[in-house]
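One chain is below:
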Amino acid sequence: MGVGEMGENKHEALHISPDTPVEGAGHMPTISAPQRLLLRVLHSWARVRRGMTFGVRAVVINAAGEILLLRHSYTPGWHLPGGGVEVGETAEYALARELEEEAAITLIGRPRLHGLFLNMNLVRRDHVAVYVVTHFSAGLATVPNREIIALGFFKPDALPVETTPATRRRINEVLHGVAPPALW
């Protein structure tokens, strides 16, 4: 994987999954009862094991001003890339690891912290640090896989219909200099 210039994107408007709806009318898919139960069990286990969950997300912006989004196999919608911070990791290290694992993105330089949020959607102890990434090199992601079913860079005014409301809010805050709220 070569080192690129600021925000170089070797995947020009990459949409790895050809059957992924990107434009046009549509609605946000609902999460099924078994998926909701699984997420609650996983978060409950994390709560027992850790007491509090801490995750990271990234607003990755390429040189064309496009935003990296991805779709998980276990929850509906398009999201910012990221994941959990493991014991012994810094938030920045976890972010770099998650970007590499999910999207073959290698950080070049330090990301900028956008905000720290309390996400009470499933549990009342979930915190998320959101970073802005503009200096990176993009490799070739192996998608679909068990976790990520699709990913791509999208113009901010042409995000997929199924982009989650929280993802849209974070993108808007970053692109328009809006101060982040305390809640996700």
In short: The longest helix spans residues 33-50. The chain has three helices and nine strands.
